[in-house]
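Subject: sequence -> structure tokens, single chain

Hey, anyone have a minute? Need the predicted structure for the following. Not urgent.
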Amino acid sequence: MTLKNRLVALPAGTSMVDHGIPTLGDTGHFERLAAGGVGLIIGGATVVHPTTTLRSRKLVEAYLDEFVPSTAAKVEVIHRHGARFVGQLCHLGREFIGGESEAAPVAPSPIKTVRDAYPPHELTVREIEGIVEGWRVSTENLVKAGADGVEIHAAHGYLPAQFMSSLTNRRSDDFGGSFENRMRFMRMVMEAMRSVMPVGFALGVRLSGEEEIPGGMGIEDCVRIAENLTDLGVDYFSITHGTRGKYVKDSTNPDAVAVPSASRVRAATGVTTLVGQRIRDAATAEHAIKSGHADLVGMARALIADPDLPVKSETGRLGEIRGCLGINQDCRAFDPHLHCAVNAEVGRGRHAGVGIKAPHAKEVYIIGGGPAGMEAARVAAGRGHQVTLFEKEIELGGAARIAAASPHRAAFIDAIDYLERELRRLKVDVNLAAGIEVDDIAEIRSTADHIVLATGSRPASPPTQLSGRPTASVDDVLLGSLPEVQGKRALVYDEGDGFWPAYSAAEALARNGWQVTFATALTALASRVPAESAGPLLSRLGEAGVELRVGHSLIVPDNPADTLVLRPLFGVGDIETGSVLTVWHQPRIPVTPFDMEVGDGVSVIGDCVSPRRLSHAIAEGYRAGAEI
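Reply:
Had a minute. Here:
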């Protein structure tokens, strides 16, 4: 197989799937990746047997006859843009990716994963043979659809890995015990697949170099497995790290985490090796290639954020690349399918107004230079409008710039830097320290053909019962604007958000030497933080000595000299906090200085409508700019 370059779009499902069959939206997403210049696309996890389907049927099901024509259409558009397509086949085994199935979970041994509620059914030999047949049928369907190859997903703790690992395989028959027996399932799968593969059809295997769980497989296991599979005729290895819940690395992880493991596998086997996982730019990819660590470099989220990353890199337009923030917020929520915090087109498609010049160039005034206003300016200017942006602060970015001051979340500033570069490229007239007052609106109305209000939000004021006590908002904590207090003891109280702000404040205080108690009225910790980020976040807080309490209300005594009290919502037993500083996190407040209704010639977007997340601001800014 000849590829036009060594950049690979790694498997990332869209959930734009109807009863196991890819939809037109799914096909459109993969065509967009191909059009962006990537050399090879590996399809998202595609299941091989009814025992591993989700109840939602949002995973592609390769064993169905209907899979062939829909996938053939996808392959055809990918080939049209000069890219190749490999289908990734998967059986989840005891893992269920956060959803339930109509079938019971299955595994080599009835050992429950901590990530799911139920112990798996131990597969019988006949059931194993039936699943192997599912791999054969699914491979045959990929061949019929015109794919260029197939990849076995044997990483991330899924069924093949469950057979290979002594942690999850406790069988005493021919499929368990010795290394040779634990490899038997993979050998049977590969033999079944090879029986229907034509000459030139590539066979790859994805392996976890490190499973990153206690007792799990590490790089020595991975190398041994890879050497064994090399003898069976594997054409390439794809190396990653982690198991479910750990393999999508957020911004708290270093870049290119799996490169050393890929290098070990490549050196041991001599087989073409693909590496991915938090590789966000072509320079990092180039280094991995030139240093001899890998032959191919894969990206998933970076190409979701900007499918044109390959062609922009190739043509020297590096400043135009929209970088992935690695926050795992929208791309992992699947609500109801794939979206992206910084790329509003993912999951929605390109707006009809984008990519073509507006029929009449207009004078557009945008009030507010946060992400919503900046995105509206970018899209409107790209369509040929004359755009003027006013921002009252001395920097663009709004609340996103404050979020970027959070521990381990500095990547937020990448979104602002990208938009700033685009506004310069598109010659948007940006005015900083230029607050617009009510008296200015009449003049603006007389000048502008269209006005976009994107005035953002501000922190909520401390509750009145805290009057007379040292208090701070999350913004104060992150920006280092704290009152003078005696002693460094703080209570961070999250009234009901469950998202990043209060947790970031607690982590920032703890890193600066404060003794922190974190409490919330919610009955779970970090309940709205993405799953792959919640575990590392709570681990960091625990290691920093932060005391964590759920299901508590905050009681403020009338006497400011008395300490605050945490009262359990269920049960009894008040707890005196002993804190001297209180950070009481409540929802931000919309900033709405102008009495202007949405209508002809006026758009209102972002936090000034309702304070929400970066993804909402970007999506509304994109839509507003496209509709002017």
